[in-house]
Design a protein that fits this description.
With 161 residues, the protein is α+β, with helices and mostly antiparallel strands. It has one domain: YbaK/aminoacyl-tRNA synthetase-associated domain (YbaK protein), CATH 3.90.960. It contains 5 helices and 10 strands; from the N terminus they run H-E-H-E-E-E-H-E-H-E-E-E-H-E-E. It has a 5-stranded mixed beta sheet with strand order 5-2-3-6-9, with no helix packed on it. The longest helix is centred in the first third of the chain and has 14 residues. The chain is globular and about 40 Å long. InterPro entries: YbaK/aa-tRNA-synt-asso_dom_sf, YbaK/aa-tRNA-synth-assoc-dom. It comes from Pirellula staleyi (strain ATCC 27377 / DSM 6068 / ICPB 4128). This is YbaK/prolyl-tRNA synthetase associated region. GO terms for molecular function: aminoacyl-tRNA deacylase activity; aminoacyl-tRNA ligase activity.
């Protein structure tokens, strides 16, 4: 799967659900802060997608870019006991995408999607769409309707530096 194939599959999924969304092309971005700046949006509206090994299965965790995944909260939610991030190579093999360019749709890759409850407080979310220079803006409620993630508390606020 090439990057453009993921974008095409994502657009097809959104279009099939009659979701309203906007696609933006911009300079390549490699951090959540760069993405928020180039999009002109808040860091908390960025939907960060992380692919992890949870016990014996691979899942996607989605949270505001201003937060970090909490293994303690994941255990408290009784999702699993053992948690680790996939390596860059594992992510590439599974998705054909580099970390940081993965859209928050685990369903595109056959993965269960867990979304942090804090993202649900955002009216709109923004995320890279299979490429470091393509973003999509989508109402959170449209995201919830199309992806149907499990929305629970899985992330902590990033410490202020």
């Amino acid at each position: 799967m090439s990057d453009s194939t993921i974008l095409a599959r994502l657009r097809s999924k959104l279009d099939a659900a009659s979701a309203q969304y906007a696609v933006m092309e911009h300079a390549p971005v490699f951090t959540s802060e760069e993405a928020a700046a180039v999009r002109g949006t808040s860091l908390s509206s960025g939907a960060k997608a992380l692919i992890c090994k949870l016990d014996d299965r691979v899942v996607m965790f989605v949270m505001p870019a201003s937060r970090k995944l909490s293994s303690k909260l994941v255990r408290q939610q009784k999702l699993g006991k053992s948690l680790r991030f996939l390596t860059r190579e594992e992510v590439l093999a599974l998705t054909s995408l580099a970390p940081g360019s993965i859209p928050p749709f685990g369903s595109l890759f056959g993965l269960t999607t867990y979304c942090d409850v804090a993202l649900a407080s955002e009216t709109e979310i923004n995320f890279n769409a299979g490429d470091h220079s393509v973003s999509i803006r989508l109402a959170f409620e449209e995201y919830r309707r199309v992806e149907q993630p499990t929305v629970i508390a899985i992330a902590d606020e990033e410490p202020k530096s």
